[in-house]
Every structure is written in C-alpha cells, then in structure tokens.
Write a structure and sequence with these properties.
Blueprint: E1 8-9, E2 12-13, E3 16-17, E4 25-29, E5 36-41, H1 45-62, H2 67-83, H3 85-96, H4 100-124, E6 129-133, E7 139-148, E8 151-155, H5 161-174, E9 178-182, H6 189-200, E10 208-210, H7 215-223, E11 229-233, H8 236-246, E12 253-256, E13 261-265, H9 271-283, E14 293-299, H10 300-316, H11 335-350, E15 354-357, E16 377-380, H12 387-390, E17 397-403, H13 406-414, E18 421-425, H14 429-438, E19 443-446, E20 465-466, H15 471-477, E21 479-487
Parallel strand pairs: 1-5, 8-9, 8-11, 9-10, 11-12, 13-14, 13-18, 14-17, 16-17, 18-19
Antiparallel strand pairs: 2-3, 4-5, 6-7, 7-21, 12-20, 15-16
Helix pairs in contact: 2-4, 3-4, 4-5, 7-8, 9-10
Bound molecules: nicotinamide-adenine-dinucleotide (NAD).
Length: 488
Amino acid sequence: MAKTAQGWVRNFVDGAFIEPDDTRWYDNIDPATGAAIGRVHEADEALVDRAVTAGRRAVAAWSQTPVAERAALLRRAADRIEERFDEFVAAEVGDTGKPITQARALDVRRAPQNFRSFADTVAAAGQESFITETGDGRRALNYAVRKPLGVVAVIVPWNLPLLLLTWKVAPALACGNAVVVKPSEETPSTATLLAEVLAEVGLPAGTFNVVHGRGEVGETLSRHPGIAGVTFTGSSATGSRVMSAVAPRVRPVSFELGGKNAAVVFDDADLDETLDGLTRSVFANTGQVCLCTERLYIQRGIFDDIATGLIKRAHELELGRPTDDATTTGPLISAAHREKVLRYFELAQHEGAEVLVGGGVPDLGAELNGGSWIQPTLWTGLTNNDAAVREEIFGPVAALIPFDDESEAIELANDTDYGLAASVWTNDLRRGHRVAQAMHVGMSWVNTWFLRDLRSPFGGMGLSGLGREGGASSLHFYTEPTNVCVQL
Ligand code: NAD
C-alpha cells in the first residue's frame, strides 16, 4: 500500500516502499479544512542517492527493452489507473481540496490518456535519415539513432499533481529512461499510488522511483551527478534555481514555468460562449492552472457586457466541501499560498483597482473555515503598469482592461515577461488566426481555452519556460540522437 495504516506517505526506491523513520517527516494537510490527513516521510540525501543509483542500474536493461514491450506496459498502466480510478481521485482530492467532479473529469482522467498517447507516439516514431550527395561523386547514408538520456529527474508542482506527473513520466519511460520523481511537498499521494500501479503492471525495479520532500530534496536531486536531465514544472524562480543546479554538469532541462496569461475579447465575440470560456479560464482549479487567465483585454464596445456576465458567473460558483458534486471551486493549496494571493488583493487596491466581485476570504462555516479558502475576484481600473497585472498571482482573479483596436490589443497582451498561453475570442475567422499567431506565447487558443491535443507542442517563452513537450517534442527531449554516416 502506498500509504500505511498509520497514514504515512512513503518513498519508493528500487521497487520497494521505504519504511519511514520518525526523524524526517511533515504533515500532509487537507487545504479544505486545514487538518492533517497523514505524514510524509521526507527523503534524505542518502535516499535520493539510492534512487538515482537504482535508476542507473535499471536503465541498462529498460533502455534495451523493445519499444513495443515498453508501449504495452504503458497501456497496462493506463488500464490499471482506470481500475483504481476512485483511489486516485480520493488521494488527489485529499491533497489538493479540488472538487471531486474536477478530479474525475480532468486530473485523474488525463493520467491514462497520457500513458496511452505516449505509447502511441513512441510506437509510431521513425528516425531521421538523408541520402547525401557530395558533388564529387560520393554518396552516403546519414541516419540518427535516438537513445534515452538515462536517469531523468522529474520535479512537479501541486496544482495538477497526477496530470502533470504522468505527462512527463509516460514519455520518459516510453523512450527507455528511468525516472526519479520529486512530487510537490503539498501533494505527495498520487505519485505514491502511481508507484504501486507501475509495480503491479511489471515495470522493472528501479525504473520508477519517488522521493518526497520540500525544495531541498528537489535541489539535491537536480545536483546529483547521476542525473542525465531534469524535466521541471513549477514557478519561474525555482526553474532558474534548477538551471543553476544543473549548470556545472551541463545537463538538458525542460522547463514548464509560470504564466500571466491574457485573453483578448473582440466585440464581435459570441457573448455566452465567451463568458463560459472566460469563467473557466479565470476560475478553474481556483485559478491554479498555469494556463489560467489573469489579464482580460476587452474591446470597449463589449466591455460592460463581459464585466456584468463575469460578475454573475463568479457569484454562481459554488465553494464548498470538495466531495460534494455541486462544488465547483475548492480552496487554494495552502495557508501560505493564500497569504501570497491576499497580499496581491491588497496591492491591487493600493494600485487603484475597483473590486467588481470578491476580494477577500469567504465565511464557509466551522467545518471549512480552517481551510485556505478565498473569494473569486475581478478587478477593473488597473493597467499594464501595475504589479498586480504584471506578476503571476496563481489564484482565482483577473484584471479587466479595455482596448480600442486590434493592434492595441496585441501590444497589451504581449507586454509581459511571461509567454505561456493566450486566448482570443472573436467571430472574425481571419482576425482569430492573425491575433492568435501574433501572441508571444507557446499556446494560443481561439474561442476556447485549455483544449489539448497531447501530440501538439506544449511549453512557454520568456519566463514561462524552455523547450516543448508533447508528442514528438517529448520524444526529442527524452532522447539524444547519435548520427551515423555511412559512405555508400
Ligand atoms: P514551485 O516552483 O514552488 O515548486 C515546484 C516543485 O519544485 C516542487 O516539487 C518543489 O518542491 C520543487 N522545488 C522547490 N525548490 C526547488 C529547488 N531549489 N530545486 C529543485 N526543486 C525545487 O512551484 P509550485 O508552487 O509547486 O507550483 C506553482 C507554479 O508552477 C506556478 O508558477 C505555475 O504557473 C507553475 N506551473 C507551470 C506549469 C506549466 O506547464 N508551465 C504547469 C503547472 C504549474
């Protein structure tokens, strides 16, 4: 069992759960109530080293396992997650406080999809090859053989724990790597359950390892000389620290970092469809999705209609017990994160924001008031010069800012140090394509948001990241080519 009867969440190294000791642990907190729901055994340096060493041993055989066998194992993992679906849902809801309906429809649902998608991608992948003509009568065949990196460190955040973890673990394993996973300290449970599942479906010992702990454990892992690369999802500040940690050994990194994403709404947009989309993009997962919209640029002619519609929809959100089917909106991940978001609420008002809705902490009664709840919030009156419009808040909040024409909208949306995602709302087909392409971001949506094809490239520019994952982009990151040139 991933969790012991005493509620310990354990590390998983070299095919076995490690017995926890009483000297290194912290409480696993349910953010909906503030109550401790278990204890997490924090890995020390020696355990991280054991995990990397086990990975190095395992990767020798796993990298030589035929692709079809690796893909079949990934598919069995997908099936097994579906068989244990409710356990994953309960673990994710306990750790994050997110609504059970969302955990079912998005988080846990995406895990088997990730495994199946990368099983398909790796099974269908070809190799680059060229017939070379030198001009002096010689000919040669060039072909690139792609090989796994080795042991990959996978460091992930708390907002979509299982979804983001499997998004990286599936392609890494599909390509023949071993992994050492460091889940967020806030959300250790589903990674631990995944260790059980992968062992059940026959993944060789040492190929998948989980080490728990706070940032220092991630740092120890990133610095480990046995690590061949780091794939990291988290804040831009931590990404920068990981980059420094791997710099002395010049290891490849893939970074999916923060965002300060814009939506651009033109006055010809379909009002209801746009309001539904914007409501999701601002408030989904209590605003704790890297792709969430925190800057809303709205053409003047439709500004009041959008503002009025969003206020109405914000009032309709149901904050409540995560396990109730009617709940649409959970708490923030922790008391510390709520402090951060509330500081931005204060700062925004200091910067001249008018609060259209929300702006504080809700009263949800004795059972929930110990949790990290916050009100869905909308502002007007801010500009791109304000810190609340420039910095990632990572909460259920957005600033509504008017614009007059297309070029102004593009300029405003691109006026940011980040570059993760954008959405454009318009019924003008040509303008939709044009503006979406002009966005300085990794992913641009037209008349939708967070609609994903797992084969398409995912990642960001600027402070939002480095490199792309998804489909063939993932195969590129998790492998390295050796080019062979044969004179014919
Ligand atoms: P975080 O950067 O605080 O932590 C992410 C992970 O890194 C955690 O596991 C943490 O323990 C670990 N870590 C912390 N310090 C470390 C260090 N010095 N070395 C190595 N690892 C370290 O981020 P968070 O608060 O968990 O997540 C929220 C952030 O993640 C937001 O900025 C959000 O935008 C971003 N995010 C980005 C994407 C994306 O795809 N671009 C997706 C989800 C979340």
